[in-house]
Specification:
Elements: H1 8-17, E1 22-27, H2 35-48, E2 53-57, H3 65-68, H4 77-81, H5 87-90, E3 92-93, E4 99-102, H6 104-108, H7 115-125, E5 134-138, H8 144-153, E6 156-162, H9 165-180, E7 186-194, H10 197-215, E8 218-226, H11 229-236, H12 241-244, H13 249-263, H14 273-283
Parallel strand pairs: 1-5, 1-6, 2-4, 2-5, 6-7, 7-8
Antiparallel strand pairs: 3-4
Helix pairs in contact: 2-13, 7-14, 8-14, 9-10
Length: about 290
Protein backbone atom coordinates (compact mmCIF):
# COMPACT_ATOMS: atom_id res chain seq x y z
CA UNK A 1 0.00 0.00 0.00
CA UNK A 2 1.33 3.39 -0.96
CA UNK A 3 2.31 5.45 2.01
CA UNK A 4 4.35 8.55 2.74
CA UNK A 5 5.98 7.29 5.96
CA UNK A 6 3.85 9.31 8.34
CA UNK A 7 4.13 6.83 11.21
CA UNK A 8 5.84 9.18 13.66
CA UNK A 9 5.62 6.86 16.65
CA UNK A 10 7.42 4.11 14.82
CA UNK A 11 10.05 6.51 13.54
CA UNK A 12 10.77 7.90 16.97
CA UNK A 13 10.98 4.41 18.41
CA UNK A 14 13.52 3.38 15.80
CA UNK A 15 15.64 6.45 16.44
CA UNK A 16 15.64 5.76 20.17
CA UNK A 17 16.66 2.10 20.02
CA UNK A 18 19.55 2.34 17.57
CA UNK A 19 22.47 4.71 17.09
CA UNK A 20 23.67 2.86 13.99
CA UNK A 21 24.50 4.76 10.82
CA UNK A 22 21.71 4.88 8.24
CA UNK A 23 23.18 4.13 4.80
CA UNK A 24 21.12 4.95 1.73
CA UNK A 25 22.19 4.28 -1.85
CA UNK A 26 20.52 6.69 -4.27
CA UNK A 27 20.08 5.38 -7.79
CA UNK A 28 18.30 6.22 -11.01
CA UNK A 29 18.39 5.26 -14.65
CA UNK A 30 19.89 7.46 -17.29
CA UNK A 31 21.03 11.01 -16.63
CA UNK A 32 18.46 13.76 -16.30
CA UNK A 33 16.24 12.49 -13.48
CA UNK A 34 17.83 14.86 -10.94
CA UNK A 35 19.53 12.18 -8.84
CA UNK A 36 22.56 14.24 -7.78
CA UNK A 37 20.35 17.23 -7.04
CA UNK A 38 18.20 14.97 -4.87
CA UNK A 39 21.28 13.74 -2.98
CA UNK A 40 22.66 17.25 -2.40
CA UNK A 41 19.37 18.71 -1.23
CA UNK A 42 18.46 15.69 0.88
CA UNK A 43 21.88 15.93 2.53
CA UNK A 44 21.32 19.61 3.29
CA UNK A 45 17.81 19.00 4.65
CA UNK A 46 19.14 16.23 6.90
CA UNK A 47 22.03 18.43 8.06
CA UNK A 48 19.63 21.23 8.97
CA UNK A 49 17.76 18.56 10.94
CA UNK A 50 20.86 18.09 13.08
CA UNK A 51 22.24 15.02 11.32
CA UNK A 52 25.90 14.47 10.44
CA UNK A 53 25.82 13.50 6.77
CA UNK A 54 28.57 11.89 4.68
CA UNK A 55 28.01 11.84 0.91
CA UNK A 56 29.92 9.16 -0.97
CA UNK A 57 30.05 10.37 -4.55
CA UNK A 58 30.60 7.86 -7.38
CA UNK A 59 29.89 10.34 -10.17
CA UNK A 60 32.45 11.59 -12.71
CA UNK A 61 33.85 15.07 -12.30
CA UNK A 62 31.55 16.81 -14.83
CA UNK A 63 28.37 16.23 -12.82
CA UNK A 64 29.16 15.42 -9.23
CA UNK A 65 28.22 16.41 -5.71
CA UNK A 66 31.25 18.66 -5.25
CA UNK A 67 30.28 20.88 -8.19
CA UNK A 68 26.73 21.15 -6.88
CA UNK A 69 28.07 22.29 -3.50
CA UNK A 70 30.70 24.65 -4.90
CA UNK A 71 33.55 22.40 -3.74
CA UNK A 72 36.66 21.16 -5.54
CA UNK A 73 38.19 17.78 -4.73
CA UNK A 74 41.94 17.32 -5.12
CA UNK A 75 42.00 13.76 -3.83
CA UNK A 76 39.68 10.79 -3.79
CA UNK A 77 39.20 7.35 -2.25
CA UNK A 78 41.87 5.83 -4.48
CA UNK A 79 44.49 7.99 -2.74
CA UNK A 80 43.43 6.38 0.55
CA UNK A 81 43.59 2.87 -0.93
CA UNK A 82 47.12 3.58 -2.22
CA UNK A 83 47.97 5.05 1.22
CA UNK A 84 49.02 8.36 -0.33
CA UNK A 85 46.49 10.25 1.81
CA UNK A 86 44.48 9.59 4.94
CA UNK A 87 40.71 9.44 4.78
CA UNK A 88 40.54 12.65 6.81
CA UNK A 89 42.68 14.42 4.19
CA UNK A 90 40.44 13.22 1.35
CA UNK A 91 37.00 13.96 2.82
CA UNK A 92 35.90 17.52 2.01
CA UNK A 93 33.95 19.61 4.54
CA UNK A 94 30.85 21.10 2.95
CA UNK A 95 28.14 23.53 4.06
CA UNK A 96 26.27 22.91 7.32
CA UNK A 97 28.67 20.16 8.31
CA UNK A 98 28.03 17.94 5.28
CA UNK A 99 31.09 15.87 4.34
CA UNK A 100 31.83 14.65 0.81
CA UNK A 101 34.03 11.72 -0.21
CA UNK A 102 34.84 11.53 -3.91
CA UNK A 103 34.92 7.81 -4.57
CA UNK A 104 34.45 6.89 -8.23
CA UNK A 105 37.98 5.56 -8.89
CA UNK A 106 38.18 3.89 -5.50
CA UNK A 107 34.81 2.14 -5.80
CA UNK A 108 35.73 0.83 -9.24
CA UNK A 109 38.82 -0.95 -7.93
CA UNK A 110 37.40 -2.49 -4.73
CA UNK A 111 36.89 -5.92 -6.29
CA UNK A 112 40.62 -6.18 -7.01
CA UNK A 113 41.97 -5.25 -3.57
CA UNK A 114 44.20 -7.71 -1.76
CA UNK A 115 43.55 -8.58 1.87
CA UNK A 116 46.01 -6.01 3.27
CA UNK A 117 44.46 -3.18 1.28
CA UNK A 118 40.97 -4.29 2.31
CA UNK A 119 41.91 -4.24 5.99
CA UNK A 120 43.63 -0.86 5.60
CA UNK A 121 40.54 0.66 4.00
CA UNK A 122 38.12 -0.75 6.58
CA UNK A 123 40.37 0.43 9.39
CA UNK A 124 40.51 3.91 7.85
CA UNK A 125 36.72 4.17 7.95
CA UNK A 126 36.67 3.06 11.58
CA UNK A 127 38.67 6.20 12.44
CA UNK A 128 36.55 8.91 10.87
CA UNK A 129 37.28 12.26 12.56
CA UNK A 130 33.63 12.96 13.40
CA UNK A 131 30.50 10.83 13.89
CA UNK A 132 28.22 10.07 10.96
CA UNK A 133 24.45 9.66 11.26
CA UNK A 134 23.57 9.20 7.58
CA UNK A 135 25.59 8.11 4.55
CA UNK A 136 24.11 9.02 1.17
CA UNK A 137 25.67 7.24 -1.80
CA UNK A 138 25.27 9.04 -5.13
CA UNK A 139 25.70 6.35 -7.79
CA UNK A 140 26.93 7.01 -11.30
CA UNK A 141 24.21 6.94 -13.95
CA UNK A 142 24.29 3.91 -16.24
CA UNK A 143 26.86 2.00 -14.13
CA UNK A 144 24.60 -0.89 -13.19
CA UNK A 145 27.28 -3.16 -11.74
CA UNK A 146 28.41 -0.59 -9.22
CA UNK A 147 24.82 0.46 -8.47
CA UNK A 148 24.21 -3.17 -7.55
CA UNK A 149 27.23 -3.43 -5.27
CA UNK A 150 26.54 -0.06 -3.61
CA UNK A 151 22.88 -0.98 -3.22
CA UNK A 152 23.59 -4.38 -1.74
CA UNK A 153 25.99 -2.89 0.81
CA UNK A 154 23.49 -0.25 1.95
CA UNK A 155 20.53 -0.72 4.24
CA UNK A 156 18.18 1.10 1.90
CA UNK A 157 17.97 1.84 -1.81
CA UNK A 158 16.30 5.07 -2.91
CA UNK A 159 15.29 5.13 -6.58
CA UNK A 160 14.77 8.54 -8.19
CA UNK A 161 12.09 8.74 -10.89
CA UNK A 162 10.69 11.59 -12.94
CA UNK A 163 7.61 11.97 -15.10
CA UNK A 164 9.58 10.90 -18.19
CA UNK A 165 8.65 7.38 -19.33
CA UNK A 166 12.27 6.30 -19.78
CA UNK A 167 13.09 7.10 -16.13
CA UNK A 168 10.22 4.90 -14.96
CA UNK A 169 11.33 2.08 -17.26
CA UNK A 170 14.94 2.37 -16.08
CA UNK A 171 13.92 2.52 -12.43
CA UNK A 172 11.78 -0.58 -12.80
CA UNK A 173 14.60 -2.41 -14.59
CA UNK A 174 16.98 -1.68 -11.72
CA UNK A 175 14.43 -2.82 -9.14
CA UNK A 176 13.86 -5.99 -11.16
CA UNK A 177 17.55 -6.92 -11.28
CA UNK A 178 18.14 -6.21 -7.59
CA UNK A 179 15.05 -8.16 -6.53
CA UNK A 180 15.32 -11.17 -8.84
CA UNK A 181 19.09 -11.62 -8.82
CA UNK A 182 20.07 -10.27 -5.40
CA UNK A 183 16.94 -10.73 -3.24
CA UNK A 184 16.35 -7.05 -2.43
CA UNK A 185 12.72 -6.85 -1.37
CA UNK A 186 12.16 -3.21 -0.40
CA UNK A 187 12.85 0.07 -2.16
CA UNK A 188 12.24 3.74 -1.41
CA UNK A 189 10.96 5.97 -4.20
CA UNK A 190 11.14 9.71 -4.82
CA UNK A 191 9.42 11.26 -7.83
CA UNK A 192 11.24 14.36 -9.02
CA UNK A 193 10.29 17.29 -11.24
CA UNK A 194 6.51 16.76 -11.25
CA UNK A 195 3.68 19.27 -11.54
CA UNK A 196 1.83 18.11 -8.45
CA UNK A 197 1.76 15.57 -5.65
CA UNK A 198 -1.17 13.93 -7.44
CA UNK A 199 1.00 13.34 -10.51
CA UNK A 200 3.75 11.90 -8.31
CA UNK A 201 1.34 9.55 -6.60
CA UNK A 202 -0.04 8.39 -9.96
CA UNK A 203 3.48 7.55 -11.16
CA UNK A 204 4.28 5.82 -7.89
CA UNK A 205 1.03 3.84 -7.79
CA UNK A 206 1.66 2.58 -11.30
CA UNK A 207 5.19 1.29 -10.72
CA UNK A 208 4.33 0.05 -7.22
CA UNK A 209 1.44 -2.09 -8.44
CA UNK A 210 3.49 -3.58 -11.28
CA UNK A 211 6.44 -4.29 -8.96
CA UNK A 212 4.24 -5.90 -6.34
CA UNK A 213 2.47 -8.07 -8.89
CA UNK A 214 5.48 -9.22 -10.93
CA UNK A 215 8.45 -8.90 -8.58
CA UNK A 216 6.94 -9.41 -5.11
CA UNK A 217 8.69 -6.31 -3.77
CA UNK A 218 7.41 -3.45 -1.64
CA UNK A 219 7.93 0.19 -2.62
CA UNK A 220 7.48 3.21 -0.35
CA UNK A 221 7.07 6.77 -1.56
CA UNK A 222 9.26 9.01 0.60
CA UNK A 223 8.98 12.20 -1.39
CA UNK A 224 7.89 14.14 -4.44
CA UNK A 225 9.74 17.23 -5.64
CA UNK A 226 7.72 19.73 -7.66
CA UNK A 227 9.09 21.31 -10.81
CA UNK A 228 10.49 24.60 -9.56
CA UNK A 229 12.49 27.37 -11.21
CA UNK A 230 14.21 28.02 -7.87
CA UNK A 231 15.72 24.53 -7.98
CA UNK A 232 17.31 25.25 -11.35
CA UNK A 233 18.51 28.65 -10.14
CA UNK A 234 20.09 27.18 -7.02
CA UNK A 235 21.99 24.65 -9.17
CA UNK A 236 23.42 27.54 -11.19
CA UNK A 237 24.53 29.11 -7.91
CA UNK A 238 26.15 25.80 -6.82
CA UNK A 239 24.01 25.79 -3.70
CA UNK A 240 21.27 23.45 -2.47
CA UNK A 241 17.82 24.94 -2.91
CA UNK A 242 17.13 24.10 0.74
CA UNK A 243 19.81 26.64 1.63
CA UNK A 244 19.51 29.20 -1.18
CA UNK A 245 15.71 29.40 -1.41
CA UNK A 246 14.30 27.81 1.77
CA UNK A 247 10.78 29.16 1.11
CA UNK A 248 10.52 27.54 -2.33
CA UNK A 249 8.23 24.62 -3.13
CA UNK A 250 11.13 22.31 -3.95
CA UNK A 251 12.90 23.14 -0.67
CA UNK A 252 9.73 22.23 1.21
CA UNK A 253 9.61 18.97 -0.74
CA UNK A 254 13.16 18.06 0.24
CA UNK A 255 12.56 18.88 3.90
CA UNK A 256 9.51 16.63 3.92
CA UNK A 257 11.53 13.94 2.16
CA UNK A 258 14.23 14.14 4.86
CA UNK A 259 11.61 13.83 7.60
CA UNK A 260 10.03 10.84 5.87
CA UNK A 261 13.39 9.14 5.45
CA UNK A 262 14.22 9.51 9.14
CA UNK A 263 10.81 8.12 10.09
CA UNK A 264 11.20 5.18 7.75
CA UNK A 265 12.04 1.97 9.64
CA UNK A 266 15.66 1.09 8.96
CA UNK A 267 16.16 -2.66 8.45
CA UNK A 268 18.54 -4.19 10.97
CA UNK A 269 21.56 -2.75 12.76
CA UNK A 270 24.34 -2.69 10.16
CA UNK A 271 26.87 -1.05 12.46
CA UNK A 272 29.13 1.85 11.51
CA UNK A 273 30.59 3.16 8.28
CA UNK A 274 33.44 0.65 8.45
CA UNK A 275 30.89 -2.16 8.33
CA UNK A 276 29.40 -0.61 5.22
CA UNK A 277 32.83 -0.54 3.59
CA UNK A 278 33.39 -4.17 4.52
CA UNK A 279 30.08 -5.13 2.89
CA UNK A 280 30.86 -2.97 -0.15
CA UNK A 281 34.19 -4.72 -0.73
CA UNK A 282 32.39 -8.06 -0.62
CA UNK A 283 29.48 -7.02 -2.83
CA UNK A 284 31.73 -5.31 -5.39
CA UNK A 285 32.58 -8.76 -6.75
CA UNK A 286 28.92 -9.36 -7.64
CA UNK A 287 27.41 -8.27 -10.89
CA UNK A 288 30.17 -5.90 -11.97
CA UNK A 289 29.96 -7.17 -15.54
CA UNK A 290 26.19 -6.71 -15.84
CA UNK A 291 24.60 -3.79 -17.67
CA UNK A 292 20.92 -3.10 -18.22
CA UNK A 293 21.12 0.49 -19.41
Amino acid sequence: MARMMEDQAEGLRRLQVSDAVRIVTVAGGRTGVGKTSAVVNLAMALAKNGKHVLVLDENPRHNNVNINLGLKARYDLLHVIHRDKTLEQVILPGPDGISVLTAMRGVHCLAKLNRDDQEWLIKSFSKLPKPVDVVLVDTAAGSTGHVLSLGLAAQQVLVVLSGVASSITDGYALIKVMSQEYARRHFLIVVNNVRSEQDARAIFDNISQVAKRHLSVALDLVGCIPADEKLRRSAQLCRPVVDAFPASMSAAGFRKMADNLLRCPCPGDYGGVENFMQRLIRSSRLGTANSIF
